[in-house]
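$ fold --in a.seq
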Amino acid sequence: MRVTPKWFTDHPQYLSNPFYLGGDSYAGMVIPLIATYISEGNEKMQQPLINLKGYLVGNPKTEPKYDINFRIPSAHGFGIISDQIYEAAMKSCKGNFVNPANQLCAGLLRKIENLISEIPDAHVLYKKCVVAAPKQFDDASRRKSLLEESTQINAPPGRPDLDCFTYGYYLSYFWMNNNLTRNALGIKERTIGEWVRCIKGLSYAFEMPSSIPYHLNLTTRGYRALVYSGDHDLEVPLLGTQAWIRSLNFSIVDDWRAWHLDGQAAGFTIEYTNNLTFATIKGGGHTAPEYQPEECFAMARRWLDNEPL
């Protein structure tokens, strides 16, 4: 059953506009699925008909066979694990790092994960910092200096150092719990509790083992797709993303080349048949728009305008 998109029902003047879906990280599982539902609804003439043209996903989770297996060669390429450890892991694990087949493989994987834990896998060049997860905050003077009287706080997150990338996550807690912000967003008083950035333990079933069949289905039926990767991400490494794209066996239309912004290489890109484009974001992490917003905006704008990257 298709749920009628209320926004389009309320704003029918936008129905004829080209419609694209986009998202990063775990959205790599969700976006192709939603696009498929919209496409199937259109084919069944379910109203309103949405003018779906394509989708874009960044540093997308897709399937453990690719997302997890390619962490090890990527960690080797980044210089996090040595040649000897990498070669031993390849030999004992036989390329399967998801389900270790023997004790030697399992031991090597533990050693590799310990080495990876020394750096932030979201961006291997950044400082390893507190990731603003909720916890008790008992520095009243610091709290007072950051908050206005209109802010309601119960359990602010741990505070990263000022030069940490995650400091922005920390500030988002105070901004989102400020009554001025909540009023601007139209949140009625007492309808929504305290906002926290990281919520664990949600009742969420991970029932979809792979989004690759949805990518294949959509692209071969004429929908455009842009897949991009921050090239310093070890959480969903670009090597894994390249590998599942190659598994689709699409022919190359425009071979691997640099794409530019302000006269400098902003990343590299390749275009396949069935309107599938893959691009890297130089200096990007997980997720790329957080680290390189200007480059990602330029990439998305060009792609949406049907221009070469």
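$ fold --in b.seq
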Amino acid sequence: MNLQYFLLLPLLLFSATAVVSQNIVRTLPGFSGELPFKLETGYVSVGDIEFFYYFVESQSNPGADPLILYINGGPGCSGLNGFVYQVGPVAFNITDYTGGLPTLLLYPHSWTKTANIIFLDAPVGTGFSYATTTQAYTTSDTLSAIQTTGFLKNWLNDHPDFKSNPFFLGTDSYSGILAPIIAQEIIDGNEVGEEPHINLKGYLIGCPHTDTTLEKNSRIPYAHRMALISDSLYEAAKTSCNGRYVDVEPSNAKCVEAIESILLCIEQISLQNILEPNCAFLTPKQNKEIRRSLQENSRSFLLPSQHTTGDAWCRNFEYLLSDIWTNYKSVQEALYVRPGTVKEFFRCNISLSYTVNVNNVVGYHKNLTNSGLQVLVFSGDHDMVIPHVGIEQWIKSLNISIDKDWRPWYVDGQVAGYTRKYTNNGYRLTYSTIKGAGHSPPEYKRRECYEMFYRWIHYYPL
């Protein structure tokens, strides 16, 4: 699959004279002492956009270890989400938070133990990334993919020591739709001699958004497998809907009735993780109200332990700590954020001027099976946003050979999930589930995800 239509985009996106600013961060408010890892923050210009990034050098061998560009989902979730909640070297202390400035703890199972990682605020309007013109805030799936590629090229031009490192693209959730598009764009650019040459070796996609219709459709068989709906109800829907549960014709009364009954069964289930409380999404206004109370040391908003029984605990309240922390002036100064460029930081900006114009990238994945890349696809088995059954279905549609069939993989002698490996003329795809994890598996099973990543990135079997 080619991306010729992207040639219509402004060539300024890949300006060789793009401005890159970078700063070394030695201490962070809320963290005790100097950081025991090298953290760089900065901005990279891509046209009229100033992309903000966090870069952590590998704590092992930065000159030889892989370089990863890590993009969170949303669209609109900051790279800070990956840095703090998923695969980065620190985590918020949530066990004894009483208000005010949140504190940070060193996290032992960071992917930066064995890889150099750029955590990017993308697309424009995410985190601390901003545009210098109003028009530049408008973007889409295809445009975001091109802009991200432009960021990478300009970043590498400013960091020539990492040009020869093996490069991998890492994405989470919604940004899974961008991963194969960016990979194809990199390959196409390398083939025509674009500089810098990107040493692309593969990509890893967690709970990846890939095919909108397939993902929504797979929720019903997944709900049946997880005993959320009865055998009879599932069979009624399967028969009357002919296996298609989205965009149902209103004239198909039996199918509509079955779907309505199923929705009544699962409407109070958390799609993020079917075992956790179903928490309402906090709006920016709610975030602001709760954040103000927490900053003022109010004990009425204490964050209960994840192991609290009942409905007191909600993962969304843990996310609030990032909004509180990043809106402190001292934190923004420590991160070298440009004053006045972003009025207020949100972990996930839900008000982007963003157009969804790609709903299916299975064709890109199919085309890339001839690329010789190494690919890791992983999913939490309690995720009903992007159910694993749908992921397994589109992987099967690639028609590539099974090299190692379904088997458990282990951490500390315990089953951490299940895996299967596929090959196609040098192309290798490893699929893995993470047992007990929900949407964005590293947020639930950081140790297991680190072990999975370490083995895969160093070409060991899971």
